[in-house]
Write a structure and sequence with these properties.
Layout (H helix, E strand, L loop, with lengths): L1 H28 L31 E5 L9 E7 L10 E8 L4 E3 L12 E7 L11 E4 L7 H5 L4 E8 L6 E7 L2 E9 L5 H5 L3 E15 L4 E11 L2 E4 L2 E6 L2 E13 L2 E11 L4 E8 L4 E7 L11 E3 L1
Parallel strand pairs: 1-8, 9-16
Antiparallel strand pairs: 2-3, 2-5, 3-4, 5-7, 6-10, 7-8, 9-13, 10-11, 10-14, 12-13, 14-15, 16-17, 17-18
Amino acid sequence: MMKNRNCAQGFSLGLKAALLALLMTMAACGGGGDDEQTPLNPHPPTPEGEGGGATPPTLSLKATASGVAFANGDKIGAFMAYGALKSAGNYLHNLPMQTDGSSWTLERTVSWQDNSTPADFYAYAPFQASLSDPLACLFQVSTDQSTAEKQKACDLLWGKLASQSPTARALTITLRRLFAKLTVKVEAGEGVTPQDLNDSQLAVSINGLQVQATVNLSDGSITPSGATAVIVPLKEQERTYSAVIVPQHVEETALVTVNWNGEDYTLTQAMTFESGKQYSLTVTIKKTAGTVNVGISQWETTDEDFGGTVN
């Protein structure tokens, strides 16, 4: 009888010990009472548009140029740089932008690098797919500018937009002309009437100018290069001719030749053509000779008078 009671007591103590161990194990697994439990996903994704995890906005660009009407299908080349513009490896490197005459579209969709880092933008027109190094790109004016299309193709435009913070709104790059323009007007002088000029054979050529240039798109600077050539200008209207010119200084040379009824009238002149300026020469033809007066018109003005005589 004593033996059975001792067995019961031992079983009771063993059961209590097992229950105590089970409770301790459950407490350890449960993290302990009111303590906060670890979530299954400790870093839930940040909703788009909130905080530093937001998706960078899509880039939107458009271009404008004073005195230039972009037509449907016109293209410009765009560069986007974080830091200085480089010869290669820019964030955007010569990416085409095309207009329908009112709005502009990048060739592909582009997002900003992030939501905070500012960037610089550079653009030029007309677009050249072969352009590789924006710090030393070669451009050339045509020696045959006898049509408006040919002249437009060599009228180089350039613009820069600096330190722009990421935004979804459209950024506007304003372009300006980098080359110069020369307009030659032929007028009737003593012994000659306007009708005499209109009814006769009249031709104008521009001589002794370099037609190539190396351009740095980071600042729009231009270095003329290559051999000199004769340029056939565009006839804008009766007795008025124009040509796009690479900015340069020319020593005294036979700059302009007007051929009237088979006879050449030549202006020998030293001149400096500056970026973005338009120069106008009025060639007055007399019966035996002609006089030439040169001034600046339309784009910019100067008090300097480039007088000369043609023979």
